[in-house]
Amino acid sequence: TALQSVFFIMIILNYIGSQWEGSRTKGPPNPKQPSACDSNCSQLTLKLEFSSKVVEDEYIIGFIGYFSAKARSLYISSALRNTGDDMLEWHIVPRENPASDFPSDFELVHIRQASPSNLLTLEDHPYIKRVTPQRKVFRMLKYVSVPEAAEPTAPCNASTRTQKWQSTSLSLGSGFWHATGRHSSRRLLRAIPRVAQILQADVLWQMGHTGSGVKVAVFDTGLSEKHPHFKNVKERTNWTNEKTLDDGLGHGTFVAGVIASMRECQGFAPDSELHIFRVFTNNQVSYTSWFLDAFNYAILKKIHVLNLSIGGPDFMDHPFVDKVWELTANRVIMVSAIGNDGPLYGTLNNPADQMDVIGVGGIDFEDNIARFSSRGMTTWELPGGYGRVKPDIVTYGSGVRGSGMKEGCRSLSGTSVASPVVAGAVTLLASTVLNRELVNPASMKQALIASARRLPGVNMFEQGHGKLDLIRAYQILNSYRPQASLSPSYIDLTECPYMWPYCSQPIYYGGMPTIVNVTILNGMGVTGRIVDIQPIWQPYLTQNGDHIDVALSYSPLLWPRAVYLDVSISAAKKAATWEGIYHCHIMVTVASPAENDSEVGGELTSTVKLPIKVKIVPTPPRSKRVLWDQYHNLRYPPGYFPRDNLRMKNDPLDWNGDHIHTNFRDMYQHLRSMGYFVEVLGAPFTCFDASQYGTLLMVDSEEEYFPEEITKLRRDIDNGLSLIIFSDWYNTSVMRKVKFYDENTRQWWMPDTGGANVPALNDLLTVWGMAFSDGLYEGDFTLADHDMYYASGCSIARFPEDGIVIAKNLKDQGLEVLKQETAVVEGVPILGLYQTPSEGGGRIALYGDSNCIDDSHRQKDCFWLLDSLLQFTSYSMTPPSLSHSHSRVAAPPGSDRPLPQRLEAGNHLYRYSKVLEAHLGDPKPRPLPACPHLSWAKPQPVNETAPRTLWEAISKLSLGFDLGQSRPSRNVKGVPAPRFRPFVSWERVEPWDIPGSIMPGRYNQEVGQTIPVFAFLGAMVVLFFFVVQLTKAKSKPKRRKPRVKRPTYLQQQQSTAGKNPTV
Length: 1063
Hints:
Blueprint: H1 2-26, E1 44-67, H2 69-81, E2 90-92, E3 104-111, H3 116-123, E4 128-145, H4 195-198, H5 201-206, E5 215-220, E6 233-238, H6 251-260, E7 273-278, E8 285-287, H7 288-300, E9 305-308, H8 318-329, E10 333-337, E11 358-363, E12 393-396, E13 400-403, E14 409-412, H9 415-432, H10 441-451, H11 460-463, H12 470-477, E15 484-487, E16 491-492, E17 514-522, E18 528-530, E19 536-539, E20 548-554, E21 557-558, E22 562-571, E23 580-593, E24 603-616, E25 625-629, H13 665-673, E26 677-681, E27 695-699, H14 707-718, E28 722-726, H15 732-737, E29 740-742, E30 747-749, H16 758-765, E31 771-772, E32 777-783, E33 786-793, E34 796-798, E35 804-812, H17 813-819, E36 824-835, E37 843-847, H18 863-875, H19 880-883, E38 888-889, E39 916-917, E40 924-925, H20 950-956, H21 1000-1007, H22 1011-1035, H23 1048-1055
Parallel strand pairs: 5-7, 5-9, 6-7, 9-10, 10-11, 11-12, 16-24, 25-26, 25-27, 27-28, 28-37
Antiparallel strand pairs: 1-3, 1-4, 2-3, 4-8, 13-14, 15-17, 17-22, 18-21, 18-23, 19-23, 20-22, 23-24, 29-30, 31-34, 32-33, 32-35, 35-36, 35-38, 36-37, 39-40
């Protein structure tokens, strides 16, 4: 009997091993086994480019409410009759889509050659909210196979050991991709797992949660009708002008597969209700009006989750932005990609940069921030304020597997891949909540950011709140009570690198206030208000509570479900010579009408605490303080301002903010490493005390100057302030060549400035006999033993005779742009240094190109030159490498050449300028605005002591839930809940994190190879055990044991053994 048992067990183990080996080599059953080269089952690189332009003579007429088509037509007719223009030609553009049968809040109208007065008359109608040009959106998708030389092909359902990906910008930018890892040491790379399993979606599947009952919308390129991966496609709608619902590109199918595929490359929520919105044509074209109609239809269908894997830099497309707010107000959880314009900072895409949207960044499977993933901060608030923390969360976006266009799987990379990962996770999480009324855009975002696992060594503008943790989010969401929360949840200006850039520079008395832009999330309702007059500031008496001043700026109304809270922090006068750490907190109470019938009188309240920790140092000497001029930098949107490097033809718009923490981040980091303290001026020159600063740094300035600013700056320099200017190209002929389509006048027009506003800079410098020219030059050269590259810079036209001027031989790029001819110009003056003649006066340094310190398109940095110029301006020490340079020439008198003039015809700078205003067709300076005035909060001291580490204290108390303790979870009736443990913030996802001990993605490749060996060894151990037992049994004499009668209750219990009670 024992030998029979042994043979039987060996047969079973051998069978299991052979079946596993077969499944490992053959893969899952599939009617068609695609080859490695099959387009439906391949590993591809996703290249994305995004651009938009205005459609001529088409306007989106927004109304203040929803009206029928007849009513909308009557309102527009009535408004246009009031123009008095009987010859005006117009008609309503028909929109044949599923939303056309329902009331709408906008209309698309074609008005031929409408004048600005016609449009203003339209907006004057009491029922018309806004008139906006129609936009045509282009999204270029390119799928490129991994080069065979770089990576051997593999079967479709197998994993490879290494992956090499490439990507280009999602929006207007050139291509970047990330390295294989953060460290240079060699190591084994993990196989690419299925993303749903690595995030532990199978834990929730085992509990019976699969997305059932949740409506998820995919706004993309469509989906074929009979795709084998989807079983619950409720509706497919077409919003384009093509007569098809199918996906001709594969992108929409891939996104839908990551969310809801039921086989092969399995999605997160296979039982969710898929609603497919085809908003892009096969030519990758879309229009704003298509999105508006589709958004309205999503609200009508009561969609719960909406994925939008597109984006662009235009956060001033008002109809689009307003409609996203309306979606949030109607409980639609929008998840959107932040863009593929990394690693540059200040490259967030809209709508992911909005407060109410879950903005998603990308990481690879080694938990490195993907190089392509866009970085914060938001730039809406510049120049006067400071940007918000974005992305909100990061997750896998590199080499993720999803559904092929017709069948099979493919691997793609990009934040447009990371976005559906989060959208699928959100859909799955929503299905786990018994009381669906608790699930709304704010509560879901609160759960995601409170549960996110922070990545070590990565700052908040790269990772947001951290990496998506599905299980911890499930724990929080299923014990959630409606409340308010903060993002970020604390302010620690000493915590590096996470709190970069705040932690990179301490505060001191006399410095510009440090502004932290906090988002208040309201999970209690769509609207809310801040209770009392303002939030309460409570310094800690035992921890230097009287050493700082705090000012708070906020909107008293929270809508939709969020609002900003600007916290301005400045050192008090008594801290001028003090160094130490300061602690306090701010208390904010939010009241919100309950969204449904509530027992609490129809209003809910929630109080949240914002802990603050600040490092204060004595005020640095004047020579070490540099003031960055942010006020005079302009960027897209709203105006069209060209790039500083004309070689960047595929990315023509200057849209990164020109801030020391965005595209001048590396320069800022360098200055801090050299011991300089860098502050930002977000107001006119009349609003700072020049006696506090050694150097005013002006880079790439496009704005005009108030007359009062020019007067004050001259006086400040006479009194010891120094000035460094990095200019850029300006040439009216080239500007006419590089033209754009003006969305207001409906005509092609030239940019109103070049890379810099040289005529305005010359007005600023004319008193010292200095000026820049309209020459446009580029080329490589060597200066002071440093290799340099001049990229679309200008030259110095005039300079004082006793100044130092450096000249180089450069190519005439203007001639190349205008006539396609090449010429080299000898002795082009590019650098000038000058000591003003007044006693105690400051120094001035000019350089004609900013590209060497701009991260956007820097090829060779010139930080060494900036150091030399600061040595000259701050300490009056002229570097010998410049004063004795062989390239030093006589100062150009400039009398033989006219200075550049402002563009007259077609100049619309006044539309976007803070300085100019229209005045009878001739722009004039506006009245000088008042300097920003901060209302300092009145302290209410408390006798408290702050924890040593704010983050650890906050992470344990996020949303009132202790993440270190596992709460009892709601479970499906009759289904046992698997055991799991919450992740600690520093843990990595390892195989033992998933119940069952082996992660499916790694099991196939690494463990699967050893299964037959384990089976054989196990069989031998079992065989040995049974042989030993059999030998012992034969050697012992048989002995008859007395039979004992069991009690009756034990017999009854034995008779029922093996039967499970019904729950």
